[in-house]
Amino acid sequence: MSKLIINSSTPPEAQLLKLARLRTVSDLWDRAFGIPGTKWRVGLESLVGLLPVGGDVVGLGISIYILWQVVQFNLPKTILLRMVFNIAIDALVGAVPILGDFFDMGWKANTKNVTLLEAHLRAPTQSRSADQRFLWLLFGGLVMAVIALSVIAVVVLAFVVKALSS
User: Fold this and answer.
1) Among residues of the chain, what percentage have pLDDT more than 70?
2) Please, are residues 92 and 84 in contact by the beta-carbon 8 Å criterion?
3) DSSP structural state of residue 42
4) Among 29, 35, 73, 97, which lies 20 to 30 A Cα-Cα from 9?
C-alpha cells in the first residue's frame, strides 16, 4: 500500500486500523465469494438482498455505517457527496425486485466508497481534481434531467389539452 496521508486529530495508527476495518466490511459485504467459473465476486449483500424489503434495508444500513465511519476522516464534501451518490444509486436501483439484485452484484457501492477514501488519502490533490469533474458531470446530469422532465411535462400537457378540447 502506498503512503497514506491522514488528516485528522485521531492518531494515524487508529486511522489505519479503521481504514483496514472498513475495507474488511466492504469486502465482506460486496465481494466475499467468487462465482465458480467466472471472475465475478459477490458479497453478503447479494444474498441478504434477496430478502424482500428487509434485505435492502440491511444493505442500506451497512452502507450508512461505512459512510458514518468515513466522515470521521474529514474528507472534502465533494468526496462525501460522491459516496452518498453511490449509496443512493445502490439503494434506488437495488430496491427494484430481481433487476436490483443483479445490479447489486456489479455496482458494489461500499467498495467504491472505501476506494474513494483510500484514493484521497494517497493523493489528496488528485482527488480534489476528480471531485470537480464529478460535480460538473452531476450538474450536467441534473440539467439534462430538468430538460427531460420539462419536455415530458409539455407533452403530457399537450395531450391533456387535446383530450379536453375533443
Assistant:
1) 86
2) no
3) E
4) 29
DSSP H helices, 11-165, are: 12-31, 44-48, 54-71, 77-94, 99-107, 109-122, 124-165
SS3 of 103, please? helix
Taking the CA atoms of the chain, what radius of gyration do you get in angstroms? Answer: 20
DSSP-derived 3-state class of residue 41 = strand
Which cell numbers hold the place of 127? 482527488
Residue 34 has phi, psi (to 5 degrees) of: -85, 145
| 43 class by beta-carbon count within 10 Å (0-12 exposed, 13-18 middle, 19+ buried) | buried
Whether residue 44 contacts residue 63, with contact meaning beta carbons closer than 8 Å, is answered with: no
Please, which residues bridge with residue 34 across strands? 41
DSSP one-letter code for 34: E
Q: Cell for 18?
A: 479503521
Q: How far is CA 72 from CA 7, 43, 62, 65, in A?
A: 10, 25, 16, 12
pLDDT digits (tens, 9 = 90+) for 39-95: 989 999 988 888 877 888 898 899 999 999 998 888 888 888 899 999 999 988 888
pLDDT digits (tens, 9 = 90+) for 90-134: 988 888 888 888 898 889 999 999 999 999 888 876 656 666 677
